[in-house]
Design goal:
Layout lengths: L26 H9 L3 E6 L13 H19 L4 E3 L22 H17 L4 E6 L4 H11 L5 E2 L14 H5 L6 H10 L6 H4 L9 H6 L5 H4 L14 H23 L1
Parallel strand pairs: 1-2, 1-3, 3-4
Helix pairs in contact: 2-6, 2-10, 3-4, 6-10
């Protein structure tokens, strides 16, 4: 079967074998994958401002690419896996002052994510792993509460150790919204979506959005991000993005293997 995951700008995350996305399968193909004990990976992102150089779908792009690469890892080790259609909305209150941002109440995110996980398990998938790329604390809390008590569901949280220590200095600093961390990840997954001429001209914004949140700030503007970015987008590179995806894919694949052990 030809690889339908590949485009001129994106490599096939499953080494050009079977499609990695559930939505690309026919129902007989999905039935076969489930019969093989497929793990489902659910990408969760947001639709929000990511600086003047990255698309509103940045978190969705990152969550999906991390999931695709995790599927490639699992399949290479003999474990069937697929990527579920992504959740493209989240709790994005900090960016709601910027055009195009769509934020949902935390209880809606909680209910939707939980219902998807329950539905995937009821459909026969062996386990579900959440691939989340949106880091707003209320959003993460909604996902964490959504998976509580669900058997065979895992939410590996990259904001916690040990993974938080493996994603680079900018990520650890908290100045990582649309900076080199996220920009590199989009460059590696969908370079055509990065406004490169603009990216190269952006000065570093060293303010830690994580620290600003702890101090009680409630928006990017209050935190010191008038252009909806924190960090150093000009320092980004696709090579750095590929290295980061290795860690993210390892995190998701490890969670999947622990669930089915």
């Amino acid at each position: 079967m030809p690889c339908r995951a590949a485009t001129p700008a994106r490599s096939c995350a499953a080494s050009c074998g079977e499609p990695v996305k559930l939505g690309d399968l026919t129902f007989p193909e999905a039935r076969e994958a489930i019969a093989k004990g497929a793990v489902a990976i659910l990408p969760v992102g947001s639709t929000e401002a990511h600086g003047p150089h990255l698309p509103l779908a940045t978190d969705v792009v990152i969550a999906e690419e991390a999931a695709r690469r995790a599927v490639a890892r699992l399949r290479a080790e003999g474990t069937e896996a697929v990527v579920l259609p992504p959740v493209a909305y989240g709790v994005t209150d900090f960016a709601k002052g910027f055009a195009g941002t769509i934020t949902l109440p935390a209880n809606v995110v909680h209910g939707f994510v939980r219902a998807i996980c329950e539905g995937a398990l009821a459909a026969g998938f062996r386990a579900v792993v959440i691939s989340n790329a949106h880091l707003e604390p209320a959003h993460i809390a909604a996902i964490r509460s959504a998976v509580e008590g669900l058997p065979k569901v895992a939410f590996p949280d990259k904001t916690r150790r040990p993974w938080s220590q493996k994603l680079g200095e900018e990520f650890r600093s908290g100045a990582c919204h649309a900076g080199s961390y996220e920009t590199s990840l989009v460059q590696a997954a969908a370079p055509e979506l990065v406004r490169e001429d603009l990216r190269r001209t952006l000065p570093e914004n060293p303010i830690s959005i994580g620290r600003a949140i702890k101090e009680g700030k409630t928006s990017f503007e209050e935190a010191g991000g008038p252009d909806a970015y924190f960090g150093a987008p000009a320092a980004a590179s696709a090579a750095q993005g590929d290295e980061l995806y290795e860690t993210l894919a390892e995190m998701l694949a490890t969670a999947a293997k622990e669930l089915i052990a």
